């Protein structure tokens, strides 16, 4: 069984310069969510993440993982991916009793800790206090709160259930986070509240509006003046009841290919996400409310092309917040057991994770309600390009060049580059491994290089999963690296600075060899003594690093047989092998029922392409 052996450093409190928006938000008369300071429009993009609760909480315990350390590592990776939005439906069933009284326990404290870690990174938060779920999936339920006895169908009609929810909302919003020292309702890092997660309603509409208004009233009675959102996606037959409710915003979700297919879906799904239609978009009541996507995902799809299209479609539909569901904790992602139909983690799904980074940039750069031509004419928009054929998403801007796989695209302004991130190779980075890497310019001729370990898929991550069955293998390999960054030259130096990384090397002809870790890369003769592990970097420190330990599985082979072969013609067979070194022999044994068995030598290539 794999456990995560990771490096983590204490995080400094961010300065005002590191957190561009420190005030609250408000919804204007046109239904636009704006920052109170400066009045600019809000556009935030990120993830859901559930480590303090339910399955994640239990699984981390089973693996013996320190949960606070796990949260620190995951939040660091979220920051690396440019995430600036976080949402979670709080498992009220784990932090309340049946009367709605708040319980001070480990789940609540871990939520407090997570909120603090997110705020240190400048990541803004919307909380959904009531989940209505019990906590068992995919195991038995053990929750003891009011949601364990009141189902969704009676949650808004049973007087005892309504009273329990009022009591719970009051106590939850008045809870003081021991890490931030803030009441939840006053915390400037928490921008808004969505009352409840995916409620189920039926006609008539009157009780639905009354309940929504009563829950909003309970929030307002605490003194909270933050925007209140309400779900309109789950019970479309009563959408008028929500449009009539006294709420500031509406929430939506998007799972365009459905959920829990039981296997990886293949094919071009980009036409599925070319538009995000909303049937009542022209209703004046709708226009007066702000909009957020509380959950979205390209479920059962690992292709790194879906997120940028989804982000763009959300912006065209007028949404100002979007958070995918759900980012896998690093310590669990080797097996994808949290939610089988979802799979996203920087270390284990590197290309898909970089596509989330690109999608976040698209969400922030595309204007609200900006229109685009239909697919495939919209495959290139602004600084972005998405190609199903190449299995590639790109962002090519003067200051940043991001890509999910090998690309022939050249940076639009190489001399202005400040950030590079990707997998495989490009005009500025040639890399032999399969993990993600990041390059950030620190000064002219000085860059920070971060390299994640090789990730190799070995099983279908969307089939039945188990903590005893890895779906992705992690390898810590020496890999060839060639940099062609402006001002760096061919004989740059590399110096490891993360904990335990003492590597030092000088490139020859632009080429060097690296292992996973963090490096200061500098042009020949450049003094880099000022750059150490504790040097401030963004919202953290220069030497921060988090990566899973190698997966000890022995030799593994992944092969997809060709669909057809032509008789009498040469046949090329390819497979991805792990646990095999250059000194090993690889043989193909070809056996026929009625013929002789042939043993053929196979050519072994280092850094072979990993199928997606």
Overview of this protein structure:
This protein is an alpha/beta fold and 612 residues long. The chain is 18% helix and 21% strand. It is built from eleven helices and 31 strands. The strands form eight sheets. The chain has a ten-stranded mixed β-sheet, covered by helices on one side. Strand 7, helix 8 and strand 8 form a beta-alpha-beta unit. Helix 2 packs parallel to helix 4 and helix 6 runs parallel beside helix 7. The longest helix is centred in the middle third of the chain and has 16 residues. It is globular, with a radius of gyration of 25 Å.
Primary descriptors:
about 600 residues, alpha/beta, 10-stranded mixed sheet, 8-stranded parallel sheet, 11 helices, about 20% helix, about 20% strand, globular
- In terms of quaternary structure, the protein is single chain
Q: What is the residue-mean pLDDT, rounded to a whole number?
A: 93
Q: What is the number of beta strands?
A: 31
Give the radius of gyration. 25 Å
Report the helical percentage.
10-25%
Number of H- or I-type helical stretches: 11
**Arrangement of strands in the largest sheet:** 11-12-13-14-15-17-18-25-22-23
Q: How many strands, what sense, and barrel or not for the largest sheet?
A: 10 strands, mixed
Low-pLDDT parts are: 1-22, 608-612
> Which shape, going by the Cα principal axes?
globular
End-to-end gap: 24 Å
- Summing up helix and strand content along with how strands pair, one would put the structural category as alpha/beta
Strand content: 15-25%
């Amino acid at each position: 069984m794999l456990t995560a052996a990771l490096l983590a450093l204490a995080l400094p409190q961010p300065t005002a310069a590191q957190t561009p928006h420190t005030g609250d938000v408000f919804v204007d008369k046109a239904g636009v969510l704006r920052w109170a300071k400066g009045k600019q429009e809000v556009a935030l993009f990120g993830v859901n993440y559930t480590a303090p609760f339910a399955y994640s909480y239990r699984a981390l315990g089973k693996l013996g993982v320190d949960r606070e350390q796990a949260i620190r590592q995951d939040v660091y990776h979220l920051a690396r991916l440019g995430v600036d939005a976080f949402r979670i439906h709080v498992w009220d069933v784990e932090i309340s009793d049946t009367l709605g009284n708040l319980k001070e326990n480990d789940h609540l404290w871990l939520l407090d800790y997570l909120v603090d870690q997110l705020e240190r990174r400048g990541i803004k938060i919307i909380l959904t206090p009531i989940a209505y779920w019990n906590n068992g999936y995919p195991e038995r339920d053990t929750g003891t709160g009011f949601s364990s006895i009141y189902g969704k169908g009676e949650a808004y009609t049973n007087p005892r259930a309504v009273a329990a929810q009022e009591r719970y909302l009051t106590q939850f919003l008045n809870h003081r986070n021991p890490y931030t020292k803030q009441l939840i309702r006053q915390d400037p890092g928490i921008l808004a509240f969505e009352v409840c997660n995916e409620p189920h309603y039926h006609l008539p509409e009157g009780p639905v509006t009354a309940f929504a208004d009563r829950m909003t009233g309970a929030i307002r009675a605490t003194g909270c003046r933050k925007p209140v959102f309400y779900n309109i996606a789950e019970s479309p037959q009563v959408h008028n009841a929500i449009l009539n409710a006294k709420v500031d915003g509406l929430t939506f979700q998007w799972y365009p290919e459905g959920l829990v297919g039981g296997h990886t879906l293949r094919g071009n799904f980009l036409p599925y996400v070319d538009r995000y239609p909303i049937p009542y978009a022209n209703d004046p009541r709708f226009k007066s409310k702000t909009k957020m996507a509380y959950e979205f995902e390209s479920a059962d799809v690992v292709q790194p092309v879906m997120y940028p299209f989804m982000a763009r479609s959300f912006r065209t539909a007028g949404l100002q917040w979007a958070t995918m569901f759900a980012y896998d904790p690093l310590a669990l992602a080797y097996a994808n057991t949290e939610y089988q139909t979802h799979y996203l983690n920087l270390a284990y799904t590197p290309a898909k994770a970089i596509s989330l980074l690109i999608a976040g940039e698209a969400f922030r750069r595309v204007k609200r309600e900006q229109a685009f031509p239909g697919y495939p004419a919209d495959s290139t928009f602004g600084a972005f390009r998405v190609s199903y054929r190449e299995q590639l998403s790109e962002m090519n801007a003067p200051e940043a060049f991001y890509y999910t796989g090998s690309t022939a695209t050249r940076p639009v302004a190489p001399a202005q580059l400040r950030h590079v991130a990707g997998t495989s190779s490009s005009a500025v980075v040639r890399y032999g491994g399969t993990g993600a890497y990041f390059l950030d310019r620190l000064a002219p001729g000085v860059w920070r290089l971060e390299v994640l370990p090789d990730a190799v898929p070995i099983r279908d991550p969307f089939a039945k999963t188990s903590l005893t069955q890895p779906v992705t293998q992690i390898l810590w390999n020496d890999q060839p690296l060639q940099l062609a960054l402006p001002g760096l030259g061919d004989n740059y130096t590399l110096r490891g600075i993360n904990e335990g990384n003492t590597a030092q090397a000088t490139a020859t002809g632009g080429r060097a060899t690296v292992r996973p870790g963090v490096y200061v890369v500098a042009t020949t003769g450049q003094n880099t003594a000022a750059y150490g592990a504790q040097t401030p970097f963004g919202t953290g420190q220069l030497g921060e690093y988090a990566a899973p330990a190698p997966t000890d599985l022995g030799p593994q082979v992944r092969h997809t047989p060709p669909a057809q072969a032509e008789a009498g013609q040469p046949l090329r067979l390819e497979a991805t092998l792990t646990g095999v070194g250059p000194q090993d022999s690889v043989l193909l044994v070809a056996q026929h029922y009625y013929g002789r068995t042939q043993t053929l030598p196979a050519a072994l290539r280092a850094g072979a392409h990993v199928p997606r």
